[in-house]
Amino acid sequence: MQESVMKAWWDSSHMAGGNAAYVEELYEAYLENPQSVAETWRQVFDSLPKVDGVELESNHTSIRDQFRKLASLGPMARMGAPVATTTGVSDDKQVKVLQLINAYRFRGHQHANLDPLGLWKQERVRDLELSHHSLSEQDFDTVFNVGSYAIGQETMSLGELFKSLNRTYCESIGAEYMHITDTEQKRWIQQRLESVQADPTISREDKLNILKGLTAADGMEKYLGAKFPGAKRFSLEGGDALIPMLKGLITEAGKGGTKEVVIGMAHRGRLNVLVNVLGKNPSVLFDEFSGKHDESLGSGDVKYHAGFSSDFATPGGNVHLALAFNPSHLEIVNPVVMGSVRARLERRNNDANMVLPVTIHGDSAIAGQGVVQETFNMSETRGFAVGGTVRIVINNQVGFTTSKTEDTRSTQYCTDIAKMVQAPIFHVNSDDPEAVLFVTKLALDYRNKFKKDVVIDLVCYRRHGHNEADEPNATQPLMYQKIKKHPVPRQIYADQLVAEGVIEARDSEKMLDDYRAALDHGACVVEEWRPMTEHSVDWSPFLGHDWDAPYDSAISVEKLKELGEKITSYPESHKLQSRVNKLYQDRKAMIAGDKLLDWGMAETLAYADIVDRGNAIRMTGQDSGRGTFFHRHAVLHNQTDASTYMPLKHVREGQGDIDIYDSVLSEEAVMAFEYGYATAEPTCLTIWEAQFGDFANGAQVVFDQFLSSGEAKWGRLCGLTVLLPHGYEGQGPEHSSARLERFLQLCADHNWQVCIPSTPAQVFNMLRRQVIRPMRKPLIVMSPKSLLRHPLATSSLEDLSDGVFHNVIGEIDELDPKKVKRVVMCSGKVYYDLLEQRRKNEQTDVAIIRLEQLYPFPQEECAQVVANYSHVKDWVWCQEEPQNQGAWYSSQHHFWQAIPEGAKLTYAGRQASASPAVGYVSVHNQQQKALVEDALTIK
Q: Which of 14-23, 134-143, 360-369 has the highest mean pLDDT?
């Protein structure tokens, strides 16, 4: 072979680093089936030598090294290298054709016809031009080997190939998948796209179903617009394809055995989905537009935040649908959906195909809100994986009023965030509903096969403003001039079906008239709707109960010892780290009665009793396995081989499950996930633990919009327990306060519990109460740090066995109540500072009362304790937090109600401060000493 030919072949980019993945892909295909690759490449691979007698199939590295060596040689030195040829075709052009195919796979989406309005100005991509590959139309009649191009034939003329590549990658579908490193996944997508040139045959029945869906979407919006002009409804108009898309997705999922689909979405199109997919009765929606509301349902919420549940008939059986309630914090619903799905999956033996999560995003929101990244990052982790999510973007190319992409993101597509987990992305023109249906099925099949996230970018437009009262021409004049002239998707598709002879023009109009008549009638308009029978959890045992609902929680000392022996046992071969070993030896002494129980032992005993009762436990947090403060060590790490062992999983045969996961470094998404899990699983003790209490700041939207108000707004019960380490130990502003005042400010309508336990017995019975009591409310715990090892913060087995969490604890020293002149009320760690100082002072005229539950305020229990001091007029509330923080301002009205009539109440604590705590230990100690002295000094 001439040197020029050799140089052209070896210097072409197929041997360059940019195409290394492509060469490897061809080689992997060759190993599986030599006939699956082009003859040119088969000759190359056939001629590769064995390495030390080892077959090629077992030594991929050496093969790659062989290629690297060849690539590093000069052209003349490579003269002996094997070169594949194609009869009648120059070698360099054959290579260029393969590069052309690869270019379309990589970048064809950039020339796809995605925008229904035709406003996108796509940059020229030279890689997709024939000339870039030294080819031209003069080569159109030349036949080339097409390698792995999955068209069903080994060779094609360049003209046929060029048309095929454009049909596959540059029409209504733009596929991004070559960023995926897994060869099997890429090949699978290529086969599905290229074998039908992204344009499969659609049956007449499917075409009619698409038209019905578009008719319903359009008819619903027009009906609401006429009946309630100017009312906010966040119309779907322009993205109408979402309705046949979702119905097709659910139908296909049902065929494959899916039993539950959980959907999360923001406002755009939500009312349409509620009525036309989930089967919400239109008359109920119309009543909501008219302002009618059942006062017994709590505060309620706006229409476009509402959730709904129903069953949907499919050829594979009924599928339970759940649309999650969602506030205006848009993307925050994604991890909530993931958590709900995880709970449902675990009830169904973790068969990912049984439960399908679907999240629907806005284009500006998916690119702009950080919780999206957090949720993607969680998607394949051990504690949060759900077998992949189908993510749909309603891409109307504009946020509230911002349509310039340089203002909304720094990437070409709003979906580029999905590439962080190598999710395939299918952009599709929403005015081509058959293409939409094709990518929907493709996305579902990919998710079910590979158990990974997949994204559909439904490129559409917004016919009205952000809401129907907005004037969009003010900020998007060119876009809305185009929209006014653009026919609705229903009309475009109806005209297409008429032209194809599938229907006649009058059929389309009759379909629309029938739909409007159904809306007038007010009945369900979804043929597939069925009464709910497929949901997998029963909340009825937890309905209608109050805080004082009776429950039996006593436990014998013998049972505690039995459980204690189980949770301090581990295999002899499991070597513990020295400090952990000491901790476990101490725990064995506690069970034997030789030591009092500390916090970690009492907490672990609570978990042991809960799983022994048959309830499950799920705990997540950034260091939950060992505990941020080295106190829990529920997961034991073998120092020999790094294997793990959890004694709590070995309490008894048939016990409840327990999972403790160290979470990703996120508060917002992780806590939202746990909220979603707890709303779908009432029998499990679900716990989220902050690394430090103030880190809960990162999850504030979850507290505000879901946990504190979800029951009042949406009737959603939730038993999530939140552990927030809290206490002033001189560690500075960021590691002191869990912002107790924020949680107390949100207290109303008996929405949750706020507790500050101060003894091991209290945490033991508080956690058990959360499961055993037949009601489900969130539990906010200001959990300790220094109290985990405080010498006074201990309990006996007998203290635990009474089974009662005491909302108020009175004086524990033997003081004569008649001699008491001042009573100090407090919560948490400061109690021990007060107690130690009082004992040091040998004071007998100051009593100390602990409030272990600040909300709901235990008025009756407090009255029983206060009765001993009815003669005392001097009452003090003492806290570590600054005066404008902590419980003083938020709970002061409760304190006034609790003290005797005519008594005065004063404050002892830090002065008001913008910062939660000082940053200097010396100043902290000075302040702590001063507030304790102030509380104990009778004026």
A: 134-143
